[in-house]
Amino acid sequence: MNELKDIFTSYWNxxxxxxxxxxxxxxxxxxxxxxxxxxxxKMGWELNATSxxxxxxxxxxxxxxxxxxxxxxxxxMVLTESxxxxxxxxxxxxxxxxxxxxxxxETTLKTGQPSFESLYGHKFFDYISSDKDKxxxxxxxxAEYARDDYEKIADLIDLSPYGVIMDLGGGIGELxxxxxxxxxSKRLILFDRKEVLxxxxxxxxxVLEGNFFSDIPRVADCIFLSRVLxxxxxxxxxxxxxxxxxxxxxxxxxxxxxxxIDQENLPATLNLxxxxxxxxxxxxxxxxxxxxxxxSFTISEIYSLNSLLKILLCQKK
Length: 317
Prior knowledge:
Blueprint: H1 2-8, H2 11-22, H3 25-31, H4 36-43, H5 47-59, E1 63-66, E2 69-72, H6 74-77, H7 88-93, H8 97-103, H9 106-111, H10 115-120, H11 124-129, H12 132-149, H13 153-156, E3 164-168, H14 174-182, E4 187-192, H15 194-197, E5 206-209, E6 222-226, H16 234-247, E7 253-259, H17 269-277, H18 285-294, E8 297-304, E9 309-316
């Protein structure tokens, strides 16, 4: 019973963290705004409410108070902009459009269509691409997940045979950054929309502007699709795979990195989230094989990247 009661109010724990990240509270405390009065003054908040808010953050173990001054704990430091393992934007991401869409999930349950689109009037990626701040939050959040998930990817699979590696829809370049560490001289290309490339962070990676629903330049013998296909329904996923197949040379390789729902420990909530936000879903190995077969690819190897992510090494037929 207590476990259920804790679930009912779980947002009491998450939302203060997300809002503190969005409002740069942790960064401000790191800069020296250590007291309730200083935080309230900087933020333009009422003092008593500020005291309750900071006490909540202390309860959540991201702040601790000594001699009436707040300091960041180790967990709190991770929510600052400058921390090398920062999760600031990952924390912010789920608190706005995602949260609103989940609160309106009835649309998805009745129609099978994304409740996000009924709320915001646009497909998810079109919506965030139209707002620079939202685009920045999304891609920085995804990069924070990618930083941890992709750290060992170049050690797990042999990328040495490939002359040119291109990451389609690769965001701000986190996956290629990890490949660059192991292959400092290899030609790496980040392919994404113009507005995404404008916030890419790695100057040693070549960029190409484009859309994977249109023509993809024929420049790479190895292409990554990492956490891309789960954003799209089968029809759109086939369009992407068709374009990838056309641009790859004979014996070219496609490497897919995705969650696999063949594992019993994969949360069912991942599937519900994808349907609520984009009208898609996580796929089983069988579903991937069918999708790839219809797009003239075969899976040659499957690797486990971590407890959730699988790597599918695919060959063009």
